[in-house]
Amino acid sequence: ICSVTNKKPPQASITKVKQFEGSTSFVRRTQWMLEQLRQVNGIDPNRDSPEFDLLFENAFDQWVASTASEKCTFFQVLHHTCQRYLTDKKPEFINCQSKIMGGNSILHSAADSVTSAVQKASQALNERGERLGRAEEKTEELKNSAQQFAETAHKVRFC
User: Fold this and answer.
1) Domain assignment of residue 7, yes or no
2) 3-state percent helix, strand, coil for the chain, nearest multiple of 5
3) pTM of the predicted model as reported, rounded to 2 decimal places
């Protein structure tokens, strides 16, 4: 997982998580700051495999993505994040397929997808707000009607 804070200045980190068999949740294993990343090694640029290595200032770590496609997406996001948030030492990407460095098509697609999802959620929220407003008005009408009925029933009972 590659994450960026909204603090000023932003801080980017890489977190390694593990999902245990039979579980739907993930457990955080290790975490590094993006500035500590020195090298991303795709191991074999001619073969689609989920394995890769990350070399940090004081650590070497072997990783396995769920699929080769997820590894490619992770590399694109990681490369983009490094370009955006690291001004000094950028990590070296070696043994990576050229399509990983070539473009941001996956990033743009993901951004478009997120934007679309946010717009749909916002529209649904607005519609729900309108329905809730109408329900509140109806509830108020029913409450007033019930109060009038109770008052009338009380008068009838004591007449």
Assistant:
1) no
2) 50, 25, 25
3) 0.59
